[in-house]
Amino acid sequence: MRVLLILGLCCLSFLCNAQNQVFFTGFFPELSFTKKLANENRINFKIENQHILFNNSDEVEDKFQFKHYRTDIMAFYDYRISPTKSISLGLFHRFQEDEDGNRIIQQFLALKRLRSLRLTHRLRTDQTFTKNDPIEIRLRYRLSLEIPLNGATLDPGEHYLLLSGESIFSNKGNEREIENRLAFSWGKLFLNGQKLEWSIDYRTDGYVQKPFRTRLWAKVGYYFSL
Amino acid sequence: MNSLKSALILFFLLVNTLVFGQDKVEYEERIKKELVPLKAKEWLSKTFQSKPKVKWFKENSENGFSFEAKFKLNKSFYSAEFDSLGLVLDVEKELKWTDLENNTKVNLGKYLDEDLKGLTIEKIQIQFSGSENALSLFFRNGDSPGILKQYEIEFQAFDELGDLRLWEGTFDEKGNFLNKRRISIRDNNNISF
To answer: Which residue in A10, A31, B95, B139 has its CB near the most CB atoms, within 10 A?
Structure first.
């Protein structure tokens, strides 16, 4: 009973605070294609689409909506340093309501194989160029943990959980910002190495540049690999 | 907007067909103790009398299936493999480099240092194989005739073309090199990009 009361108070507190926050939620499909080259380096093409289904902002007429927010297309060249480490260079284009944006991405990835789990560190820097806006420079770090659900190792045909947390530090003109992302995914690995993932992706920002903003995405991703 | 909705519906239909339309051929699955042959469970409790907490797995392949018991004992990780009838095949124990005997280290070091460049050791296991009774006696008494010991070491090293690869090498009891095979790591394209 006491636990329920505490949980209720927490929810009430969140809802009260939410009045002053920007919150929106929606649907976020993504499609990724990776081609492994003869030297085990990789190229990747990816498309992501974000559609808002609910927006609590007073500025919008209908809080419930089906509105295009962003569509991102990107390409990466991934150079394998060792069987468990790689560096990548990526190009990115964003279609959005205002001016479209372009981004250059640099990435270092390190995989740690544990007894049953796989831990992945991803360190990224990126620079975003948008017309009439200062350049945005970001530093990102993500930690991911893959947990097999049907045995000690993940085999084709089996399901897995993927937990990830990412912090992003950005600078745009003289404005600094912090963003945090948490994602909880349930996926399936297919015989041919392809993967399907369903995820809940929770993002917060506006820690420095108010208002505080939260975004909750229902994601579905399909990952082709050849 | 309607075309976008139609595209999304088609996308869902496609991925759901893919999810439910494929079967796997070779896989390992966690199973309950009740599904393990009595012979395997009896051998394990007779051999490891401190009764460690055991996780049981069934390994399925096109050629049949086998059972594997994984457990931790005295801060070391073990796995015991049994055939489909519950007859023990081998027992593996994870080791650290510092756990190896000096002679073994010298011989392993000769191969790993002299023949390979860019070496990083990822995992060391010792495999014990022999008859059911010999293996049981070995783990109860610390020694037994008729036990074959081999080391399995996973390491990163350059191949003949100068590319850094992941290998599993097999070495005899004294640390002499027997053979090696390349290990492929499953693509992590969902995490990388």
So the answer is: B139
